[in-house]
Structures are given as C-alpha cells and as structure tokens.
Design goal:
Largest sheet: 4 strands, parallel
Distance between the termini: 91 Å
Oligomer: single chain
Helix content: 40-55%
Strand order of the largest sheet: 2-1-3-4
Amino acid sequence: MGIKNIIFVIVILAAFSFFGYNVRRLIGYLKLGKKEDRFQDVPARIKNVLKIALFQSKILRDPVAGPIHSMIFWGFVLFLFAVLESIIQGFYTPFDFSFLGYFYSLITFVQDIFGVLVIVAVLSALYRRFIVHVPRLEVGKKGKMDAATVLLMILVIVVSMYGMNLASIAKNNFLIKPYEFRPIASALSPVFFTGGSDGAVVSYEIFWWIHIVFILGFLNFLPYSKHLHVLTSIPNVYFSKLGYNKPVLKPLDLEDENAEVFGAADVEHLSWKQMFDGFTCTECGRCTAACPAANTGKILSPRKIIVDIRHRTMEKAPVLVAMAKSNGTELPQEVQAHNQEVLDKHLIHDYIDPAELWDCTTCMACMQECPVTIEHVDSIVDMRRNLVLTESDFPAELNPVFRNMETNFTPWAFNSQDRANWAEGMNIKTMAEDPNSELLFWVGCAGSFDARSQKVTKAFANLMQKANIDFRILGIEEKCNGDVARRLGNEYLAQMLMQENIQTLNSYGVKKIVTACPHCYNFIKKEYPQFGGNFEVIHHTELIHQMLEDGKLQLKDDAPAEKLTYHDSCYLGRYNGIYDSPREDIKKLGGTELIEMQRKRDRGFCCGAGGGRMFLEETEGTRVNVERTREALETGAQTIAAACPFCMTMLSDGVKTFDKTDEVNVKDIAEIVLEHIK
C-alpha cells in the first residue's frame, strides 16, 4: 500500500467517523419528539419515494426551477458510480468498473453528458439566487452564504470529475479504457494536456484529491447546513402521510392524566416526524409562495414556521440530551446558566408569534407544493391546540364561536331547534320520523342556518327529489361536525361534537352520507373513524354528477348562453382530489362556457375561510377572498360557481367589495344544475 493509499485511509476513516457522529447526534435529537407510527404500508411508501423523490414530480411543478434542481439531483445520483469508483481507487489505485462491460459504457456516457447539464444547472441556480433575486429564494445573509457554499462545492466536485477524466485519458496517450465512453472528456483532453506527459499524471492525482476531499467535505458540511435535506429528503418522503390520510389531523389523548401540555408549546411536544420536517426543509420558499396568507400581506410564512422548528430543535435538543446524559451530575455554573437561558424560551412566542399561527387557513397549498412532503398544517394546528387548551390564548373573536358550538351546536348564535326550518313544506323526513333510508343528507351548520346557504340546501334537496332519491335528514339532532373547532385548536370541543354526532348516526345505523359542505365531507369521511364513525361519505357534486350520468335528471334542450368560472374549494380539491365532476357537470349544461381562472385545480387559491378563518377578521394586507374574487372577475365570467358554503360566502362578499353584484352572480353547482333541469 502506497503513501497515497495510507493517507486516504486516514482521511476517509476520519470523515466517516465524524459523519457517523453527526448522524447519531441528529437521531438523538429526534428521539426527544413524541412517538408516531410512520412505518406501515411499505409498498405505498416506496411508491411515494419513486414518484416524488426519484422522479421529482413535485419539483417539476415549477417549469423553471424544476428542471434546474432535477438536473442537479439526477446528476448526483448518476455520479454515485464515479464517486464509488474514486473511493475504491483510494484503497486500490488501478480499480475501475470496466469489468461491467457495456453497462460501464452507458455509465460513463451518461456521466459525461450529465456533468455538463449539472454545471449549467448550478450556474443557473446561482444566477437566479444572486443576480435575479427570485423573491421566494431570499433567505437572509446566512442562508445565502449556505446556498452559495453548497452550490460551489457541487461545482468543484463536478469540475474535478471532468479534470480526472481529462487527465486520465491524456496520461494514457488519449486511449480510453476498455468500454469507457466519454465523448466530451475525450474531445477536451487534447485541448488541456499533452498525451503521456508528467503534467497529465500529476494533474490526475490533484484532481482526484480535490474530488475526494470535496465529496467528504460536502458530506460532513450537510449536517450543519440548511441543505441537510440532501440527506433527509428521501427518508422524509418515505415517512410522509400517505394519500388518503394526508389531510387527517391526529387526535389528542385528552384523558391522559399525566399530560402537562396539550398540543405543542415547544419542539419536544412535536412528533419526531414534525422535527424531521424541520431538518428536511430546503428553504425553497414554494410553500410561502403558494400560501394565501403570505400572498395577501399577512405575517404567516409556512417556510418560516418549519425553519423556526429546525432552529429551535438545534438550540434546545443539545441541552436536553446533555442534561439527560449528566444523570443529575452538577454541571459547571456557566453551562447551567446557558442551559437555563435556553430552557426559558419556547417555540411559541420566542420563535413563532401566535399571530402567524392564526393567519393559517389550513388550505394545504403549502403541503401540496412542498417538494419534500413537509406537513406544515399539522405543526400549525398542534401549536394552536397549545394556545387554546393549555394557555387559553386565542383571538377574542373565537370566544362566541366556541361558546355557540358548545351550547347551540353551531358556530353562530342560532337556536339549535331551528336547524331544520329550511325544510318546511318540502316533505323531507327526518331519521327520527323514519330511519328506513340508505342515504342521509348531512346539511351542516351553514346549510341549515345561513340564509344564502339555505337556498343551496333547498336546491340540492330538490334535485334529489326530482331524481327520486330516498333520503333523510337528522334535523334538530344534527350538530356542528367539529371541524372548525379542531382546526382552531379546540380539540376538547371538537371531540365532544364528534362523539355526540357519531353516537346519533350509529344509533340510526347510518351507512351512507351526502353533504354539500366540503368541510363536513372531509371531516366526517376522514376523521370521524378515529372515534368509531365509519361512514361512506360523498359530496353533493359527486351525487349530482352521478344523477346526470344515470339520466335521473333531464337537462333542458335550450338555455341562455352564459360564461362561468369554477372556484376549487380547498377541502374538496387539495384535501380530497375532487376536481373533475363539478367541471364536467358545468360543461354538460346547454349554453354554458367554462372559463378557468389562472390558479385552478390543485393550484387553486383559497377563499380565506378555512381553518376557522371564517370567524376571524383580517387586519393585515389584502383580504384573501378579495384577491380570489379579483382573479375570478378577471375571467369575464357572468357567474362564479362554487361547491362550498364557506367559499360562496367569501366570494359573494368579494363581489360586493368590487361593486359587481349587479353584473356577477355567485352560485352553487346545485343551483346552477337545478336551473337547467326540465
């Protein structure tokens, strides 16, 4: 073994020992978080990794940054053979992978081509960040230095790889190894080197050492960098919530007598996965760029929330780990003082202003856009839970909302005995009167009490009657589903309402539910099972679509020409993937022309009412509903179609703001279809 090999062994052992120490350190921090099972359904998780991490499906949603990042990622994946080859050469200098035959030809060819693409991608990334100054990439001086360091290290790694290849070809008198196919390196080698020269031999060794040192340096820089995501993004995608459960919030154990804190006041109250989200954040800003609150001048930035979780973890976790290891041993006074200073802080208040948390509409646009599947909404709601249940610190406007839900079983101050008044004269039976029906119409609070939403309720009931569908309602036995309470952090009130509703539904043997409210739809369908409420739940747009498909509703042959635009409800779209059926129904109506808004489908812009924001005033920036209404009005449509009572209220208010009530209507899909029925 030569001197080169001995030095290399020392270097690589030191590098991997330090890297191993950092891996153990970070895992130790995660162990401070609450336990959470993210290990079930391995095939689905592997599929997620292939789709999102390997094939970069979310990254490529951005037509500019997507290809740039993907080139760097795929380049690094393809360079793994080159890296491995170089490392093995550190132990045994003559080694190469040429014994793989034509597969080696493919490897070397792809590496040669992708090397250029990676260099172009890195230079493009530097240009966008430091010359163009793309707004969502602005992360402060420290973040910029971090990004520049990582990008330049990648550049050096790729350039040194080319340097090795050029020098290797030159020192062999421009004769490449068997099965080696490097067209770019072969063409450039004579430009920089003389065949068989000592300069080529020395240059090869220099480039090899640069390549190795920067690879090992890059590996050990990552645990201290915001680019830790290079190591954690694939595991984070693997452990992310799976499709159906993605929007589901986990329940709190309110009967835990040992619980001192409900929700999350600090990082150790979060789950290990939520802490891991902090490690994985790339600070790319896609979440904040999509956030309706951030878009309209609010204080909330989903990126900042996750970065704050990481910063607080890196500050507090070492203290907690060190204190646990000390096992009661008295620490030096200066260490105790530092530890106490750290422990006196909290994630909420010291890092995250409660106002940031209350700005969230839980629209899930942040989670939809995140390329590494970070779950921002879960952490935000957990911190809201702490503010409500532990600190009793929440906006004053929520006092009557919580009180009304507790006493009137609705967020508004309506008498619960008036819940079924909308159905007078419609010959609609309640479950109490006759439980022999396969379908329950869950009306919801807005559909029961709000004068405008009652028209939608009646329209949908009329459609079902025209289609001869036998259905029932609960009437005064129906209570607020609990979604608003849960997403506002009042888990106690949410669970109370959920359990009471489930008891009522189960007592009647309800199996199938239809509702016109996406919030009721999502909550009953996906979160009621946590407490034994297992029902088949469909949204009214789905049932209307089915009634039209089955010919149970006959459309008019002639109808006046009308331009419509459709607003995607967050809880119907991003939460449940229902985009097509409402659009298909609109297109079936005679005379109607569907004009899409700029932001639509899974990129649709929130109306501003979700997550309990319906009951909170917007005191900063532009109102979210005004921004969305502006976009709808720009289409020139005469009617804005909605499929959610909250959305309809917010859009109607937006139309009033623009003084367009005489020109533009806001209607529910049910109302629009009813107008076109014979």
